[in-house]
Amino acid sequence: MSKDASDQMNMSNSNTLKNLEAAFGGESMANRKYLFFADVASNLGFKDVAKLFKETAAQETQHAFAHFSLLHPELVVKDPATLTDAQKQEIVARCLALAVEGETYEYTTMYPDFAADAVRDRDSAAVVEFEAQAEESADHARIFREAAHRFGLLKHVENYHADLYTDALQVLEGGQPSTRVPGNDPATRKWICKQCSMIYDPVAGDPDSGIAPGTRFEDIPEDWICPICGASKNLFTPFEEKAAA
């Protein structure tokens, strides 16, 4: 839909706004779900089915873009050549600001709340089902523990992403990028997964994976894998933190 059409939409209608946000979320989820299905089909040798899932995922992306353009018409650009450098910078700055806002919400609110819910579920309502179906409950408990652990890890990843976006916004506005260096002390030096950005902190360790707090990354067994994405240890690199001013 064109920007002219979006400008004509009455965005003061709260139901329309909520519906657009829900539609954007649904189409975005469908895109990732179909890409996952495509990967499953491809691994099983069903190339034609995988192609179908990928093609449909691309279409869902376009649907999501259409919804998002209505939510944020200020980001819709018909002809970049007509914009001044300042206008272009303003639009990109808005994108970065929205990204910072989203990542900050994830690591300060969403993932901590999800982690708390996972813990509560394990100790309350889920217990009833656990007692009735011991075998199934054991599997549920494992899933809840993994979810709580993963949510706890992801909030640090989102914090890192928000920090990078803030840096990019600062540079865009004429500032200097932050100086980032890896730690010098192996006992406190963090490592980051190149595949998903999970950050291993030796002070905290990874108790759910059998890695005690205080374990240096170099001392972790070679068969240890990233608790978020399953990447092998060799896909981690020293984490570069902001240098003290």
Entry summary:
With 245 residues, the chain is mostly helical. Helices cover 60% and strands 6% of the residues.
Extract low-pLDDT stretches: 1-8, 124-134
Total number of strands: 5
Radius of gyration: 22 Å
Proportion of beta-strand residues: 5-15%
How much helix is in the residues?
55-70%
Strand order of the largest sheet: 3-2-4
The sequence of SSEs as H and E is: HHHHHHEEEEE
Main beta sheet strand tally, sense and closure: 3 strands, antiparallel
pLDDT averaged residue by residue: 84
Tertiary shape: globular
State the distance separating the first and last CA atoms.
47 Å
* Count of helix runs: 6
> Structural class, judged by helices and strands?
mainly alpha
How does this model look, in words?
The protein is mainly α and 245 residues long. Helix 2 packs antiparallel against helix 3 (47-71), helix 4 (85-123) packs antiparallel against helix 6 and helix 5 packs antiparallel against helix 6 (134-172). Mean pLDDT is 84; it is low at 1-8 and 124-134. Strand 2 and strand 3 form a beta hairpin. The protein starts with a helix and ends with a strand. The protein has helices spanning 3-8, 14-43, 47-71, 85-123, 125-132, 134-172; strands at residues 180-182, 191-193, 199-200, 236-238, 240-242.
